[in-house]
């Protein structure tokens, strides 16, 4: 497995996102199935696993903890704090962070969290206080590295001045490119911070398996409430999938593999975290590491994206209200 560095933290070039196994993309997978796919990921060279307390809630961390326990010292586990689970809104007060970390350590069956992200920036708590709380946890050895999720460039810079930020996680894919325009990728490059794209295959859309007839269960699939996943917009955005298929046919690759290879080609400090509960899809995703898109491939993809008018926002209004957009 090829490796990359998130600041000083060396990880596999592709990570494994665990959210979709336990929550948000349909009913939870059978626990044994989830354990099996995470362990197969490790057997195939993945060393970077991503979860969060809010996924489930809690069940994703429990799954990751059980799955990775036999080889805990050979992997990097990332988790997140920041939601007021059982209540409303966000909570990044330092005392809450400390409480969450203790609970996460138990669920993850470990004595340290390799990478701890603030899941969403809490406007009620200065980011300097958040960074200071994580810095104290790092001094205690309970956390090894600090990360931010869906943070603006300004917030990243302020946090980094207190406690160096190892990684920033934000949605990024062939079809979702806000981080190219809002300064987030630039600040990561400037400060030597790694970047971890979530939703690297467009929350499943860029696999080429979804279309205007796709039905998502509003009870179990949070994409059902996103504008981009309405039947009309699933059909309207097909152009970007078509170009991925065209490039893939030429390179003997699937659209998902082309999507992941495109991300890997953008910057050397990018480590995508595709998630799956399906071992066949896991193997498909991992094969993208060896797919080297040439300049003509990249131009074709980017030209097609430039010609299209993307339909639908990336998340619903409630979710976008807690994205830190103060650039």
TrEMBL record:
Keywords: Oxidoreductase. GO terms for cellular component: cytoplasm. Residues 14-304 form the NADP-dependent oxidoreductase domain. InterPro entries: Aldo-Keto_reductase, NAD(P)_OxRdtase_dom_sf, NADP_OxRdtase_dom. The keyword tRNA-binding does not apply. Gene3D superfamilies: NADP-dependent oxidoreductase domain. It comes from the Bacteria. GO terms for molecular function: oxidoreductase activity. This is Aldehyde oxidase.
């Amino acid at each position: 497995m090829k490796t990359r560095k998130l600041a000083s933290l060396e990880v596999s070039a592709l990570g494994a996102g665990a959210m979709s196994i336990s929550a948000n993309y349909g009913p939870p997978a059978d626990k044994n199935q989830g354990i099996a796919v995470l362990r197969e990921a490790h057997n195939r060279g993945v060393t970077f696993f991503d979860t969060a307390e809010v996924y489930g809630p809690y069940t994703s961390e429990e799954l990751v903890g059980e799955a990775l326990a036999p080889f805990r010292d050979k992997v990097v586990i990332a988790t997140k704090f920041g939601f007021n689970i059982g209540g409303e809104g966000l909570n990044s007060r330092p005392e809450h962070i400390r409480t969450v970390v203790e609970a996460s350590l138990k669920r993850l069956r470990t004595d340290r969290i390799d990478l701890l992200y603030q899941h969403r920036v809490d406007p009620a708590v200065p980011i300097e206080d958040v960074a200071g709380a994580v810095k104290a946890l790092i001094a205690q050895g309970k956390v090894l590295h600090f990360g931010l999720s869906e943070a603006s460039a300004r917030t990243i810079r302020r946090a980094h001045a207190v406690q160096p930020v190892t990684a920033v996680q934000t949605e990024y894919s062939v079809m979702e490119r806000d981080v190219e325009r809002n300064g987030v990728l630039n600040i990561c490059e400037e400060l030597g911070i790694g970047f971890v794209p979530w939703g690297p295959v467009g929350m499943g859309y860029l696999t080429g398996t979804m279309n205007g007839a796709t039905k998502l269960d509003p009870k179990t699939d949070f994409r059902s409430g996103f504008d981009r996943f309405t039947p009309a917009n699933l059909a309207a955005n097909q152009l970007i999938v078509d170009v991925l298929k065209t490039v893939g046919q030429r390179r003997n690759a699937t659209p998902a593999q082309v999507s992941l290879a495109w991300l890997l080609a953008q910057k050397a400090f990018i480590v995508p975290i595709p998630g799956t509960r399906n071992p066949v899809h896991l193997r498909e995703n991992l094969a993208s590491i060896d797919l080297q898109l040439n300049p003509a491939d990249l131009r074709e993809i980017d030209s097609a994206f430039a010609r299209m008018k993307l339909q639908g926002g990336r998340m619903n209004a409630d979710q976008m209200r807690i994205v830190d957009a103060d650039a």
